[in-house]
Design brief:
It is built from 1 helix and 9 strands; from the N terminus they run βββββββββα. Helix content is about 5%, strand content about 35%.
Length: about 140
């Protein structure tokens, strides 16, 4: 199904009504054959650092409902995704460094839909040794000041 604007759709595309807003459309690098999907709701209290560095077995797609999410994937600069914003990650070998609350005075709530490879967990933590080995793949850190 294609989610094209009703004014620009072609006859073989399904158009969304004006009440439906397309938030994100991406082409992930893969979907694991025989995989499963799950959607989770995450609610971090003010200043929560999020999970330690980890990776997902398949692609993940998210939407920030409230607050602001500090988000960082291997090879990409850290960024803040505010309420109403979306994010995605390819899964597989890519390390997800940060998913913490960027706010020190308010909670952050986001929804993530993940595709999981068969027989693999939703996420796997990355150990210190691997983080050191792959440090050259991490984007430069923002300077404090």
């Amino acid at each position: 199904m294609s989610a094209k604007n009703p004014e620009h759709g072609t006859p073989d595309e399904v158009s969304l009504p004006p009440e439906v807003k397309l938030l994100q459309e991406v082409t992930p690098p893969f979907f694991p054959e025989g995989g499963s999907g799950m959607t989770i709701l995450v609610e971090w209290p003010p200043g929560h650092p999020g999970l330690p560095p980890h990776r997902h077995s398949g692609p993940s797609f998210g939407y920030v409902m409230d607050g602001a999410l500090r988000f960082e994937l291997e090879g990409e600069p850290e960024r803040v995704v505010e309420a109403g914003g979306t994010f995605w990650e390819p899964g597989g070998d890519v390390i997800h460094y940060q998913d913490g609350n960027a706010l020190s005075d308010a909670p952050t709530k986001f929804v993530v839909t993940m595709v999981c490879a068969p027989g693999q967990p939703m996420l796997t933590l990355v150990d210190e040794e691997e983080l050191k080995e792959r440090a050259h793949l991490r984007a430069p850190r923002p300077t404090e000041g």
